[in-house]
Write a structure and sequence with these properties.
Number of strands: 3
Mean pLDDT: 89
Number of helices: 3
Distance between the termini: 79 Å
Number of domains: 1
């Protein structure tokens, strides 16, 4: 009889109730964590887009001011100059994080009116007449940045 008690005491494992409690706790954690993760991803895209847009706008403004100093007449850069590395931007055009990678998120197209999306190809829209530049997407309202 003593060997039966010892055999019963040495068994290792979880009971069904313990497993159900663990699964329930993991389910609750997942229900809380997943929406917060999705929210962080959208905030990261928004911040990345605003940062890239700020860099583009600064480069265009610096070009405008530089032409005023060197030629006496301030002019906004033509779109070809914005596309050319080393003329307006020292590096390549940053990617629009909202644009699909298959649709050239690092390209720039001629814009019509700020906030209006032009085609599906370009990550950014630029209006050379006014120097305005904006995201050429509107996934999360980013074309109003």
């Amino acid at each position: 009889m003593w060997f039966m008690r010892r055999l019963h005491r040495d068994r290792a494992g979880f009971t069904l109730i313990e497993l159900v409690i663990i699964i329930a706790v993991l389910g609750i954690l997942a229900a809380v964590a997943i929406p917060r993760y999705v929210d962080m991803v959208s905030e990261a895209k928004k911040s990345s887009c605003k940062g890239a847009l700020g860099g583009l706008r600064s480069a265009v403004s610096i070009y405008y001011a530089n032409t005023a100093l060197t030629t006496g007449t301030a002019t906004w850069p033509p779109i070809a100059s914005v596309r050319t590395i080393g003329v307006v931007m020292a590096h390549e055009i940053p990617k629009n994080p909202y644009q699909l990678s298959t649709s050239a998120p690092d390209s720039i197209v001629t814009g019509v009116t700020k906030g209006v999306i032009v085609g599906v190809r370009g990550g950014w829209a630029y209006l050379a007449a006014t120097g305005e530049i904006w995201p050429n997407t509107n996934v999360a309202g980013e074309s109003s940045f």
